[in-house]
Amino acid sequence: MKKNISIVVLIFLLLSGWSTKSFSQKAVAEKKPIGNEKKIEEWKDARFGMFIHWGPVTLKGTEIGWSRGREIPVEEYDNLYKQFDAKNFNADDWVSVAKAAGMKYIILTTKHHDGFCLWNTRQTEYNIMNSPLKRDVVKELAETCKKQGIQFGTYYSTCDWHHPDFPLTSPGGSVTREKSDLEAYTTYLKKQVAELLLNYGPLYVLWFDVPQKFDAVRGQGVIDFAHQIQPDIIINNRTGAKGDFDTPEQRVGGFQNTHPWETCMTIADQWAWKPNDKVKSLEQCLQTLVRSAGGDGNLLFNVGPMADGRIEPLQIERLKEMGQWLQKYGYTIYETRGGPFKPADWGVSTRKDNSIYLHILKWIGTTPKITIPDLGMEINSCRLAHGGKVKLTKLDKAYTIEFSGEELQPVNTIIELEFSGNVMNIEPLEISSNSLSYMKPLTASSNLKGHWGNHQWVELSAVTNGDWSGSFWEPEAKDLKPWVEIDLLKPEKISQAILYERGMAVKAFEIQALVGNKWKTLAKGKTIGSKAVIKLPKTTAQKVRLVLKEFSQTPGIYEVVLL
């Protein structure tokens, strides 16, 4: 009882001194994240964490938060908790799965946009203790993480479409309430943040989401309030303010070593569990992790436990496979930093102390040959992590690394380079690519830029960014003959194209090249699917187009590779 009284007093004192009105726009603009730098570096060392999206909505198998007022009527959605009796929930099982996967921390959705709370909060009756389960899920998971030696953090939705003081409501926060009080809601939010920090902390991370009506001033007020309770807490960029790290979603972030970042991505299609959800292949899962580390970012990989509290067996199996790979090669991921070579279409590099690890994720052709710049220090050794022969040749201002195509591994072939000096302070460098089209400029007949497509990010740059299974280009629905054009920047000799499609929508397509002032058709085809290798007549051209002539539904193109 004394502890609860002291917490109430502390919250009152903190709130009375931290009104959002006490900040100016200039102060926020000048303010830098004050999270403990050492702790952020330790968080970067971890590289791999588990995201957990869970709540009463799993009874329906629809998306958490977003299906409220859309697939499920609001009244029905808001009463699902009265049936939520996850009898098989076991925090030890969840944490054991994360550890088996090689994950170093767990972030739980303590409150999503639907407003339902998974802990014994004093601020609302809409919480887990009033469900048939009647167990403080946050408490049990926090204690188990501590017991098993894994870090624990909390996701908390900045918006709340259930709370009467938040200005927006369902579906998807697109409807404005007739009456609301954002100041009162901000106080509610801070009280709940204080509960999480004081009752379940110290926490590893505070992971906010979808600020909507929160601007940089209000968001910084939340961050500073949290830091008054736990000064070294790491906070992401979704309060409305910048925070300590960026959060690219459902796509791997680009190379960035000037500001921390973490990709959040689902192991299946949906964040919350749904029946027969499609789980990503081991190749997709591992390459997402490796590409995140190579870009100098973390991966927060999401599972959605079922309504009975268990994580689906297929998801568990995939995570265990990731853990088995990390047991062998985790030294090339954990405690590394991205680079010094920027990502190429064939893969990425990571580094630690005197070592650089080249991760070959995809190689087109029979004999891998990679050229790296001379770093100005001697290479003491060059080897394949799995064994096998590799040839290192010194050129004028570079090195070439070659080995037989038979040595390529199914998911990731790792080349270990050991240098005579420390490689950690080398500035990022460009490295040779496998294709002519990698990262070349693009134009398209239409483009749904920044659009979500079945929980994946739609963006034109996907076509040449080297990611065969992440983000994709999708034309507008009204575009009946969509095309995407690649500018190679100078005339190049091309003889082959490799296409990667999301799904099987395309029924007829052409590959065209601008020869002189006219577009010349180099090849025609019907289906693309997961991968289509197209032999082209040898042509010299600077601009090449993929034209989609027929399709059964709006198509999505992951990648176009020109060789």
Give the integer mean of the pLDDT values.
92
What share of residues is helical?
Answer: 10-25%
Gross CATH architecture of the largest domain? Alpha-Beta Barrel
The biggest sheet amounts to: 7 strands, parallel
Structural class, from secondary structure content? alpha+beta
Q: In the CATH hierarchy, what is the superfamily of the largest domain?
A: Glycosidases
Strand portion, in percent? 25-35%
- Extended strand count: 25
Strand order of the largest sheet: 7-6-3-2-1-9-8
Please state the overall shape, judged from the principal axes of the Cα atoms.
Answer: globular
CATH class of the largest domain: Alpha Beta
Stretches with pLDDT under 50, minimum 5 residues: 1-5, 17-33
Q: What is the count of helical runs?
A: 10
For this structure, the CATH topology of the largest domain is TIM Barrel
> How many structural domains in the coordinates?
3
Q: Write down the Rg.
A: 25 Å
Distance between the termini: 71 Å
Explain this structure.
The chain folds into three domains: 2-328, Alpha-Beta Barrel (TIM Barrel); 337-419, Immunoglobulin-like (Sandwich); 442-562, Jelly Rolls (Sandwich). The protein is 22% helix and 27% strand. It has helices at residues 2-17, 25-30, 37-46, 74-78, 91-100, 137-148, 182-200, 216-229, 282-294, 313-329; strands at 48-52, 105-111, 151-157, 168-169, 175-176, 205-209, 234-235, 262-266, 298-303, 337-338, 347-352, 355-360, 369-373, 379-384, 391-394, 398-402, 413-419, 442-444, 451-453, 456-458, 483-501, 506-515, 518-525, 532-551, 557-562. The protein has a seven-stranded parallel sheet with strand order 7-6-3-2-1-9-8. Strands 18, 21, 22, 23, 24 and 25 form a six-stranded antiparallel sheet that branches. A five-stranded antiparallel sheet has the order 10-11-12-17-14, with helices on one face. α5 (91-100) crosses α6 and α5 (91-100) packs across α10 (313-329). The longest helix is centred in the middle third of the chain and has 19 residues, at 182-200.
